[in-house]
Design a protein that fits this description.
mainly alpha, elongated
């Protein structure tokens, strides 16, 4: 209880962390209630390339569609991709890191080698190739990102596990003949939750950047709205270099991508400082 109060107190004193938490909650709210906030953008209208106004807060694109609605529904896609990618990375990375950091011998060494090799692979080219092979789909993009994000999570989990595994209470648990599975799940995992949680927030931020990049390259789902898809359509239409420039079409989605990434990074840093106040 004392540690919980200390965490809340330290976190509450971190203004940048509170800003990050507010931004994350805001994005989650927008993505969750996208259908209530804005109607799904489809078809076309005669309000072509109108600047921001009361009727269209973020202006319209070359088809007369509301950029506000596109951004709102893009938030849902970004959240979906992030959560699927994080879940997949956690399912693979956390067990791999626990085993490689705790189990000695060939099994631990083998998993350790796989993690190290995976970390040396060129992520972006592999992501492009795999996404192209799997086909344009929001779920496929999320799976690709998750499959390539697990090694970093496994490395953090492994390093933290190796430190905890040398503690006296772990030795005591072994002497009591507690199974390795129970030791890992009930003792080790709970004590390394801090760094693992921080790394998960970083994966959330990386996932939306990767999804936006793949969608901008045309490897995303063309039938689903995402921030990267909006930027791709604006670029393909020449909106970025047009004069007069319809700046709202490409700058607002870009700002939301930056906002999303910054908020998750700030939240992760604040959580790390609250869990490890001596390092702040």
């Amino acid at each position: 209880m004392y540690e919980q109060r200390s965490f809340i107190k330290v976190f509450a004193e971190n203004k940048t962390g509170l800003f990050g938490l507010f931004g994350v909650v805001l994005i989650i709210f927008i993505g969750t209630f996208a259908g209530v906030i804005a109607e799904y953008p489809r078809g076309y209208s005669l309000d072509i390339l109108h600047p921001p106004s009361m009727a269209n807060p973020f202006g319209t694109d070359m088809l007369g569609l509301s950029v506000f609605a596109q951004v709102v529904w893009g938030a849902r896609t970004s959240l979906y991709v992030s959560f699927v990618a994080v879940t997949l990375a956690a399912v693979i990375g956390i067990p791999a890191g626990l085993v490689s950091g705790y189990v000695k011998g060939r099994i631990g060494a083998l998993i350790d080698s796989i993690i190290d090799i995976s970390l040396t692979l060129p992520v972006l080219p592999l992501m492009i190739v795999i996404a192209a092979i799997m086909g344009p789909s929001v779920t496929n993009v999320a799976i690709v990102i998750g499959l390539l994000a697990w090694p970093s999570l496994a490395r953090v989990t492994r390093n933290s596990t190796m430190k905890v595994a040398e503690m006296q209470y772990i030795e005591a648990a072994r002497c009591l003949h507690i199974s390795n599975f129970n030791i890992l799940t009930r003792h080790v995992l709970l004590n390394i939750a801090g760094p693992v949680l921080v790394n998960l927030t970083l994966v959330m931020a990386t996932a939306v950047l990767s999804e936006s990049g793949l969608s901008f390259l045309g490897l995303g789902d063309p039938t689903a709205w995402s921030w990267g898809t909006i930027l791709r359509r604006a670029w393909a239409a020449g909106a970025v270099i047009d004069m007069p420039n319809p700046w709202w079409w490409w700058s607002i989605p870009s700002a939301f991508i930056v906002f999303y990434v910054v908020c998750f990074n700030l939240l992760g840093s604040a959580v790390n400082e609250a869990l490890n106040p001596r390092t702040s």
